[in-house]
Write a structure and sequence with these properties.
It contains 6 helices and no strands. The mean pLDDT is about 90.
């Protein structure tokens, strides 16, 4: 049986949107961030193995109702919505902004620049507060 790259991508995306697989991918990305900060080859291998395990059919039981899996369900729904929206200038601008912040974060982790990392965390928290205020009806 021949599998095309597009079929393989669809299968990987379908498995990524399962709660347990998404959790493994999240742990793998966090491990990769720790790898960049610690410059550890062993941690890099472990994070790659954990991330790769997230693409397998895990056959895990249905996740329990707790705050983590509620966050995962929200993140998966947000991801599905983002993937289904067509590419327009607003989506391109957001994608470029996120890629720029990601590049700066990777650079700060590799160079172990604590000031930049603290600034990124601070700005992310301010954005969270701004979104909560907008949802509550408070204009910034």
């Amino acid at each position: 049986m021949t599998v095309t790259p597009s079929e393989l991508f669809q299968l990987a995306l379908k498995r990524h949107q399962e709660p347990w697989n998404w959790t493994l991918h999240f742990i793998g990305v966090v491990g990769f961030a720790i790898t960049l900060f610690a410059h550890s080859y062993l941690m890099f291998a472990a994070s790659l193995i954990i991330f790769g395990a997230g693409f397998f059919d895990l056959k895990m039981p249905k996740p329990v109702k707790n705050s983590w899996f509620a966050l995962v369900a929200g993140a998966v729904e947000w991801e599905k919505d983002w993937l289904s929206t067509p590419w327009n200038w607003y989506k391109i601008w957001r994608f470029g902004f996120v890629m720029t912040v990601l590049a700066i974060t990777i650079w700060a982790l590799v160079t172990r620049d604590g000031a930049v990392l603290c600034a990124i965390v601070g700005f992310a928290y301010l954005i969270k507060i701004m979104r909560e205020n907008i949802d509550a009806g408070i204009e910034p």
